[in-house]
Amino acid sequence: KQEVTQIPAALSVPEGENLVLNCSFTDSAIYNLQWFRQDPGKGLTSLLLIQSSQREQTSGRLNASLDKSSGRSTLYIAASQPGDSATYLCAVRAGNNRKLIWGLGTSLAVNP
Amino acid sequence: NAGVTQTPKFQVLKTGQSMTLQCAQDMNHEYMSWYRQDPGMGLRLIHYSVGAGITDQGEVPNGYNVSRSTTEDFPLRLLSAAPSQTSVYFCASSYSRGDGTQYFGPGTRLTVL
After folding, report:
1. How remote is the C-alpha of A57 from its chain's centroid?
2. CA B101 to chain CA mean position, Å
3. Which residue from B38, B69, B80, B112 has the highest number of Cβ atoms inside 10 Å of its Cβ?
């Protein structure tokens, strides 16, 4: 059974730091992996989608990598800002029905 | 494009009442789904649809019904509300059966007393 884990559950950093959020999954047979951001009381916003054949995707200060063989993905945030404070979730799409399997998220606080 | 819209944003029900959560998207997406989000449990799939007229159950379908008469709309019906259904409900859509980016609505916060 595919399981997705995100560590740490919470992270607090000073503004300007480069940081890495981790996502691990137990079965390498995935179609894609997606990183989302969720602000308190809001819906989820897709940040990056990495197809199974890809190794990384970049958008602005965000870079996501995928290593299927080790069952890991990282989300790198460069020069963090207070506006980056949110919960970051990763989800893998897997199985015959291509459902999304979710991690519980990392709650990030960037302090001015 | 409005993207994925959900109504209402907030709702309070009494045990045993029924209601429908509305979801619509204007991106011509085939794939739509409903999730509930509870603290410590993450997002759980309730029902999903791969196109008009086709629906299927997710992880936690009991107590909920869905239908998909058009590509745009995917309502979620609570048949007889229970306190265990207190949650935040999200509707999501994507272009294909799950290969593309998933877009989420703003959510409906439901409290069942």
Report:
1. 12
2. 17
3. B112
Q: In the Cβ-directed half-sphere of A85, how many Cα atoms lie within 13 Å?
A: 11
Q: C-alpha distances in angstroms, A37 versus A42, A62, A84, B23? A: 10, 12, 9, 21
**Residues B76, B77, B79: CA angle, nearest 5 degrees:** 155
Q: Which pLDDT score, from 0 to 100, does residue A52 have? A: 93
Q: What are the Cα distances from residue B67, in Å, to A8, B9, B53, B73?
A: 38, 20, 7, 9
Per-residue CA distances from B76 to A54, A68, B18, B33, B73 (Å): 35, 35, 11, 10, 10
Gap between the Cα atoms of A91 and A77, Å rounded: 18
SS3 A97: coil
Is A102–B102 a contact, with Cβ atoms under 8 angstroms apart?
no
Lowest mean pLDDT across A8-12, A95-99, A103-107, B88-92: A95-99
